[in-house]
């Protein structure tokens, strides 16, 4: 599909649970690019902190998290069944453990720690060095790849986002309420936008996509138009 000589970086940022990963993965499959879910990396560090006593009763001990960082090695391995890479910590597959409400409730405090961001941003920049990547997160177009050729900023109504995430979690058999899910989304957006280091914000040159009333296929039709325009210029 895409000319390999002109592989670009596509940054997909935006609010929690608005469909960034779903869309970034679909774009990567369509273009033959690599998809990187940077939220999974912050979640993996959070899970490790929870499992190693650096988060107790919901309280994040920042110093303890920083001390753990050297013991955390994050890798990705492509899983053909999912059509995306699974995340591993120190060789252990953690993909199925990082999306619980417990991790979601702590991840924004872990991701606000400067040392955590420094480590993960450096990894992300290395992963995108050869270009041809679609990377989703909160600071991809502003900090990780400020020169990304195409930047999307995704949003959707909070109630729509909560409903989608609730369906997803309960569909996987997790026990959560709609109120809990919506509260988590609101709190994470607020924390991610107000942290001191690399807060979530729309890059000046990002294109906004509100997908509240769009299917993924409609999003793709919109995107391909933007992509073709970009590649012509
Ligand atoms: N256009 C859409 N219409 C309906 N449901 C969608 C759409 N896009 C994504 N979803 C669903 O919404 C849920 C959240 O999507 P996804 O995990 O991609 O969001 P995200 O922005 O990456 O979330 P987070 O930042 O919290 O990880 C998933 O269950 C996904 O299947
Ligand atoms: N580039 C990023 C990506 C994520 N975060 C933080 O991780 C949390 C979880 O991300 P999801 O995409 O899986 O929801 C998110 O709420 C942020 O706190 C980040 O800071 N930067």
CATH topology: Rossmann fold
Helix and strand pattern: EHEHEEHEEEHHEHEHHEH
Number of strands: 10
Strand order of the largest sheet: 2-8-1-9-10
Shape: globular
Describe, in short, the structure shown.
The chain has 233 residues and is α/β, with parallel strands linked by helices. It is built from nine helices and ten strands.
Characterization of the model:
- With 233 residues, the chain is α/β, with parallel strands linked by helices.
- The chain has one domain: Rossmann fold (3-Layer(aba) Sandwich), CATH 3.40.50.
- It starts with 8 loop residues before the first strand and ends with a helix.
- Bound molecules: adenosine-5'-triphosphate and the ligand Nc1ccn([C@@H]2O[C@H](COP(=O)(O)O)[C@@H](O)[C@H]2O)c(=O)n1.
- The site of adenosine-5'-triphosphate has 16 residues, from helix 1, helix 7 and helix 9.
- Belongs to the cytidylate kinase family. Type 1 subfamily.
- This is Cytidylate kinase.
Please tag this protein with its features:
single chain, 233 residues, alpha/beta, Rossmann fold, 5-stranded parallel sheet, globular, binds adenosine-5'-triphosphate, binds the ligand Nc1ccn([C@@H]2O[C@H](COP(=O)(O)O)[C@@H](O)[C@H]2O)c(=O)n1, Cytidylate_kinase_dom, dCMP kinase activity
């Amino acid at each position: 599909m895409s000319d390999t000589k002109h592989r670009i970086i596509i940054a997909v940022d935006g609010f929690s649970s608005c469909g960034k990963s779903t869309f970034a993965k679909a774009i990567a499959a369509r273009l033959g690019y690599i998809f990187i879910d940077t939220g999974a990396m912050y979640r993996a560090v959070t899970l490790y902190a929870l499992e190693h006593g650096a988060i107790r009763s919901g309280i994040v001990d920042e110093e303890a998290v920083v001390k753990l960082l050297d013991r955390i090695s994050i890798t990705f391995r492509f899983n053909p069944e999912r059509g995306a890479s699974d995340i591993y910590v120190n060789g252990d597959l953690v993909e199925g453990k990082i999306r619980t409400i417990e991790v979601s409730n702590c991840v924004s405090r872990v991701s606000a720690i400067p040392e955590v961001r420094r480590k993960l941003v450096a990894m992300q920049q290395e992963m995108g060095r050869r270009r041809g990547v679609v990377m989703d997160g909160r600071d991809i177009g502003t900090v990780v790849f400020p020169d990304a050729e195409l930047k999307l900023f995704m949003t959707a109504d909070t109630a729509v986002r909560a409903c989608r995430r609730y369906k997803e979690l309960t569909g996987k058999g997790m026990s959560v309420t709609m109120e809990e899910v919506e509260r988590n989304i609101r709190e994470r957006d607020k924390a991610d936008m107000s942290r001191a280091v690399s807060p979530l914000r729309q890059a000046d040159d990002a294109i906004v996509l509100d997908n509240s009333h769009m299917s993924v296929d409609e999003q793709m039709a919109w995107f391909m138009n933007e992509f073709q325009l970009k590649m012509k210029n």
